[in-house]
Specification:
UDP N-Acetylglucosamine Acyltransferase, domain 1, 11-stranded mixed beta sheet, 4 helices, 28 strands
C-alpha cells in the first residue's frame, strides 16, 4: 500500500509505485520514478529525471537528482538511475549526469552509501559497493562491483576503481586502482591483494594464481603497464587476465606498490 505523509510534497507527474513510503516533509519532483517497496524518509529531496528501483531505503535529508556541480552544465535533460536494494544514508548527494559525460549517473543494486557521501555527475557505481562516510567522488568516476571505499577518501575525476578493490580510509585517489587490490594513502599506493574481500568471493586456488600474477607485475623491474601487457601474451587464468587487461587499459595509470605492511594482510 502506498503511504505518503500529508506534509510531503509530491509534484504532479511523479510516478510512485504501490508499496512506497514517503515520510514527512519529503520532496519528490515531477519527473521522478520510484519503484515498489522503497522508503523515502522525512526531509529527503528527490528531483530531476531520477529513476529509483525497488526496495531502496533513502534516509533523512539525502538529496538526489540535483544539477551537477559542473560549470559546463547548462540545464540539459540528463538523468540519475538508481537500482534496487540500496541504502542511501543521511545527507548524501547524488547529481544527474552531464551531456558531455554520457548524460547518466548510475548506482547499481545492493549498495551501501553512508552518510554525507557526494557522488558527482556521470559516476558509474556497480553492484554491492560500500562507500563509507564523507567520501567525495568527482565527476566521471567508475567503480566496479563489490568495491569498498573507506571513509573521508577523495577520488579524482575520471578515475576507474576495479571490482572487489578496497580503498582504505582518508585516501586520495588520483590514479586507476586495478580490481582485487587493497590501496591506501595520500597519494594512494597499492598495498596488496584485498585478501579479505577476495576470500568472500573466490576459491583459494583462484586467489593463489592471482597473487602470483600480482607479484609478477608489481615486483617486476619495469612499469606495471608493460609487465601486464607482456603477461597478456601468454596463458592466464580468468581473474589474472581481467587484472592484466585493466592495468594495460588504465588511462590514468596505476599507483606504485608499497610492501611495508604486506605481512599483516
Amino acid at each position: 500500500m502506498l503511504q505518503i505523509d500529508k506534509t510531503a510534497i509530491i509534484e504532479g507527474g511523479a510516478l510512485i509505485a504501490d508499496g512506497v513510503t514517503v515520510g514527512p516533509y519529503a520532496f519528490i519532483g515531477k519527473e521522478v520514478t520510484i519503484g515498489g517497496g522503497t522508503i523515502v524518509s522525512h526531509g529527503a529531496h528527490i528531483e530531476g529525471r531520477t529513476a529509483i528501483g525497488e526496495n531502496n531505503r533513502i534516509f533523512p535529508y539525502a538529496v538526489l537528482g540535483t544539477a551537477p556541480q559542473d560549470l559546463k552544465y547548462a540545464g540539459e535533460p540528463t538523468h540519475l538511475e538508481i537500482g534496487s536494494g540500496n541504502t542511501i544514508r543521511e545527507f548524501c548527494q547524488i547529481n544527474v549526469g552531464t551531456a558531455h559525460g554520457g548524460g547518466v549517473t548510475r548506482v547499481g543494486d545492493d549498495c551501501l552509501i553512508m552518510g554525507h557521501v557526494h557522488i558527482a555527475h556521470d559516476n558509474q557505481i556497480g553492484n554491492g559497493c560500500i562507500i563509507a562516510n564523507f567520501v567525495a567522488l568527482a565527476g566521471h568516476v567508475e567503480i566496479g562491483d563489490y568495491a569498498v571505499i573507506g571513509g573521508e577518501s577523495a577520488v579524482h575525476q575520471f578515475v576507474h576503481i576495479g571490482r572487489c578493490a578496497m580503498i582504505a580510509g582518508a585516501s586520495a585517489v588520483s590514479q586507476d586502482i586495478p580490481p582485487f587490490l587493497l590501496a591506501d594513502g595520500n597519494r594512494v599506493r597499492i598495498r596488496s591483494l584485498n585478501l579479505i574481500g577476495l576470500r568472500r568471493r573466490f576459491s583459494h586456488g583462484e586467489i593463489d594464481l592471482l597473487n602470483r600474477t600480482f607479484k609478477r607485475i608489481f615486483r617486476a623491474n619495469r612499469a606495471p603497464k608493460a609487465a601486464a601487457e607482456s603477461l597478456l601474451s601468454g596463458d592466464l587464468d580468468a581473474l589474472s587476465r581481467e587484472f592484466c587487461e585493466f592495468i594495460a587499459a588504465a588511462k590514468r595509470g596505476v599507483p606504485n606498490a608499497h610492501y611495508e605492511k604486506e605481512e599483516h594482510q
